[in-house]
Amino acid sequence: MVPDPITPDAPDLIARPLLTQSWLDLAFVHWAADPAEVAGLLPPGTVPDTLDGVTYVGLVAFRMHRVGWFRLPGVPYLGSFPETNVRLYSVDAQGRRGVVFRSLDASRLLPVTVARIGFRLPYVWSRMAIEADGDTVTYTSRRRWPGPRGARSRLTVRVGGRIGEPNALEHFLTARWGMHSAFFGRPMYLPNAHPRWPLHRAELVTCEEDLVVAAGLPKPAAEPVSVLYSPGVPVRFDRPAPPHRPAGIPTP
């Protein structure tokens, strides 16, 4: 198995999407991790994706905006909410690179329930807020259900200059065109497409969180190796791809 190349642009535009949404005001915070420490947390059929022998744990906070089905207009209230996810990086036997979500905190109970029951995704209901003050953005989250109750995060980033050409690590962490998961025990790959990320350097002003540990991962022992911000992109999700389907034809 040879992983597909990392490309800043989506391999397919997804003309007939299953889901549409926008991801806005994103903060990407990443720590380096030993692939052996996270391999057991990935779904069947995947292994840790690595860059120069290292994989990464991501804490990504953002604002979900107007989730919609097919080509229908996105829902303004139930489809718009803050979200914070803990994610890992994966690659499958077909070489498809993706992300694996260990947890997804969101502030709307109905979407959380639908995602947990309908897609078997590890969504949790949390009290959340996003506040902007000049060039700083603060994301807060405290877990409600199903738990562990009280798990929380408070991230504040100071947004810096626009990145003209992201480096290899920045591409690796953000140019992800699929999600690996398991649906009733069977491997699932959900492709996505969006415009190229507009990325900014960012400074991590505050990081008080225990979501990483609550997701079954070791507590980060060092400073993050990458902190980025993006104003966001519109996103399209395709239907799940079967295990034999190659990447690039039709997954943040």
Automatic annotation (TrEMBL):
Q: Which Pfam families match?
A: DUF2071 (PF09844)
* InterPro entries xrefs: ADC_dom_sf (IPR023375), DUF2071 (IPR018644)
Origin, by domain of life? Bacteria
Under the heading PANTHER family, the entry gives: DUF2071 DOMAIN-CONTAINING PROTEIN, DUF2071 FAMILY PROTEIN
- This protein is called what? DUF2071 domain-containing protein
Organism field: Streptomyces asoensis
